[in-house]
Amino acid sequence: MSAPVSVTVRAAAKINLHLGVGAVRDDGFHPLATVYQAIGLYEDVTATRADTWSIHTIADAGIDPDGVPDDETNIAIRAGRALAEHHGLTGHAAHLEVHKGIPVAGGLAGGSADAAAALVALDRLWGLETSDDDLLAIAADLGSDVPFALLGGTAIGTGRGELVEPLENNADLWWLVVPSDIGLSTPQVYRKYDDLAPADAAGDAHPAELVAALASGDAGAVIGALRNDLTAPAYALRHDLAARVGELTGLLGSGIRVLLSGSGPTQLVPYADLERARLAAARLTEAGIAHWLAPAPVAGVHVVHYD
Ligand code: C5P
């Protein structure tokens, strides 16, 4: 096959089925024990041969791309530069077209998905054949969530979240994804976590109960074991999110679980059964509450088009 002119790669949003946060490290990061899951909301990144770096972002309906940098500070271009540098390439550049299907600053790692997709798109465009281990290492330098965006599926994350290992998962779930109009800053939520120092935090202990529930395929047990240590700090910063738990429970029934996605502000309601998930989605539509219905787990980065 002749060298491609452009390559499109898709990467999924992530949620944390478990986000256990330990005491802040000397480098300012927090040690984590987290269970990541890739859900069916996607970013597509198209890399096209070019002499200089440039990037353009478009977004699906309901997603505001304002605030996404359109210059070299964008994480997708930083990913491309890191890949070129890893291979000692100078003068390599590309135009990146990002099609966003993941809310911005939502706690769903949309930027990390862009970085992971850009790494793989440029690896293919330039014919580099970078090893998986090297891609994971480059990804880890770009952000704590970027290695998981390469992997997808369901995985355990340790370190600051960048050390990922796939987990056995036999429980499929449907997630109602309820975005917020206003983003939430991840560093701010972690700082609030430090201020609150919640005594009931799971910390970075291994989430054995959830890991066993995933392997057994008992979706109800998975839902019962969901946990996020950033809930209290995020809700302390954003009282509207705490209020929305009550609103969602009022609409969907007291049996639901409302999980904060990562550092928020997106909130998630899991269903083991698609019909019940569809009914719940219809109730949110009637109430005028924006949402998506996403399957999980889904695959990590994959090529969707070569030109
Ligand atoms: O690694 P990433 O760029 O996603 O991290 C963004 C910010 O989130 C960090 O600068 C830090 O403030 C916070 N963070 C943290 N501990 C982690 C991951 C992120 O404190 N394990």
Helix and strand composition category: alpha+beta
Low-confidence stretches: none
- Fraction in beta strands: 25-35%
Question: Nearest-angstrom radius of gyration?
Answer: 19 Å
Q: What is the global morphology?
A: globular
Oligomerization category of the chains in this entry: single chain
Bound molecules: cytidine-5'-monophosphate
Task: Give the helix level as a range of percent.
Answer: 25-40%
Give the overall average pLDDT: 96
Number of domains: 1
Please characterize this protein's 3D structure.
It is built from ten helices and twelve strands. It has 307 residues and is α+β, with helices and mostly antiparallel strands. It has a single domain, classed as Ribosomal Protein S5, domain 2, CATH 3.30.230.10.
Topology:
Elements: E1 6-21, E2 32-50, E3 54-59, H1 75-86, E4 93-100, H2 110-125, H3 132-142, H4 146-151, E5 154-158, E6 163-166, E7 173-178, H5 186-196, H6 208-216, H7 219-224, E8 227-228, H8 231-237, H9 239-252, E9 259-260, E10 267-271, H10 274-286, E11 292-296, E12 302-306
Parallel strand pairs: 1-8, 3-4
Antiparallel strand pairs: 1-2, 1-12, 2-4, 2-5, 5-6, 7-10, 7-11, 9-10
